[in-house]
Prior knowledge:
With 164 residues, this protein is an alpha+beta fold. It has one domain (21-161). It has four helices and seven strands, in the order H-E-H-E-E-E-H-E-E-H-E. Strands 1-7-2-3-4-6-5 form a seven-stranded antiparallel beta sheet, covered by helices on one side. Strand 3 and strand 4 form a beta hairpin. The longest helix has 14 residues, at 90-103.
Amino acid sequence: MNSFVNLQKRSVQLPKGCKDLIDVLRLPSALNTVDRIEVGRLADTEHYLSQLLQSAGKLKMLLISSLDGQAGRVLIHDEGALTVTIFVDSVREEAVRSLFVEAGINPTWDYAMNNERVATRGLIYPLPADAPRAPQLTIDLMRRAYGLADEAEVEFLYAERDAA
């Protein structure tokens, strides 16, 4: 284990008080106001991301997940810079990496997490802050990593708060 990694502390890329992606969803309601949870199509990602980009909140998050629970979750958040966080198994890792290599984007966080059941890798990539590229990269990510089609139903959980 790397002596510089302290698993008891949060990553600098996640919101304050969060050590894992699931911790974002467990933030106390006083700190995290969920504006809405809606079901839509993968193709609707542009609509939700444009709201995130236009928001004046200090912390904005959009969690995208498949309805059947088979596809993983993709968290997009903005605390001054737009990023996408994804946890993938070794089968999906190559698809995620190749997508971002093609886009010329390197990960800002790359960490192997092993448990008894499956090896998982946590990856965080910066997203371009312009409206056409960020949604397209996100849609391509869900297509490649999880095999979702544009018409696939997904859940959009949108949240924002004023103070970190």
